[in-house]
Design goal:
- By secondary structure, the chain is of the alpha+beta class.
- Helices cover 21% and strands 24% of the residues.
- The chain has four helices and eight strands; from the N terminus they run αββββαββαβαβ.
- The termini are far apart.
């Protein structure tokens, strides 16, 4: 019933406005709740101390690669500052973030050297199952997992660039390498960064007559240092 002097048209408009407000209120509350529940973009600072991959010093000529990486994350944007020493001088070294997302990862222990039959050089016989003193790329994979991000100097930084050795940083004549770059990483990597690892690859083995790791895929991909991202 209308009040005295009420106008049907005015009443109808008023009721429509009230209905719109009633319907809009739950929607606004839902949007607010959804916004509050949405996870914030991952941010923070991380680091990794790079230590030598277990090896026989005779098999690899006595290398001792060490280093440190400082990482700054804002959403998917990752700034990397990495230094390493003890590398093969004047050669590029592939470096990656490795790991199974939301899974267990670790730097390979000495027991990872089970000799998968990877050739060290064309003339050295390999006996599958007999340790050869080196942990190859394939032997380390079960520990540190697949490539997630490639620390290239230019261009693509995805796993697809993991073996494009010519785009990775080059160690100087003293075997020291410095790397700085800001890159965009997959959101899954960003969310699981503290469960992953940094691995540095590449060394010239004493059995290699040409004194370069670039002529051998085994040498170019041989893991030489690894560090847990904390």
């Amino acid at each position: 019933m209308l009040t005295s002097g009420g106008h049907p048209a005015i009443w109808k408009v008023t009721m429509q406005r009230k209905l719109i407000l009633l319907l809009a209120a739950p929607a606004a509350l839902l949007m607010s709740a959804t916004a509050a529940a949405a996870p914030a973009p991952p941010v923070g600072t991380f680091s990794a101390d790079l230590t030598p991959i277990p090896h026989d010093s005779t098999a690899d000529g006595g290398s001792n690669v060490t280093g440190h990486a400082a990482l700054s994350l804002a959403g998917r944007n990752l700034t990397v500052d990495l230094t390493a020493t003890g590398l093969t001088p004047n050669e590029p070294h592939a470096m990656h973030i490795h790991g199974v997302l939301a899974g267990a990862n670790e730097c390979p222990p000495a027991s990872a050297d089970v000799n998968t039959g990877d050739p060290i050089d064309p003339v050295t016989p390999q006996i599958a199952g007999t340790p050869d003193g080196l942990i190859s790329l394939a032997e380390g994979l079960p520990s540190y997992g697949p490539i997630d991000v490639s620390f290239t100097q230019t261009g693509d930084t995805s796993a697809a660039s993991g073996l494009v050795v010519e785009r990775f940083p080059v160690a100087n004549a003293a075997g020291t390498l410095s790397y700085h770059r800001s890159i965009k990483i997959p959101i899954g990597v960003a969310k699981n960064l503290s469960d992953l690892h940094i691995v540095v690859h590449g060394t010239d083995l004493p059995s290699d007559a040409d004194h370069s790791s670039l002529s051998s895929l085994f040498e170019a991909t041989l893991p030489v240092a690894c560090g847990t991202i904390n």
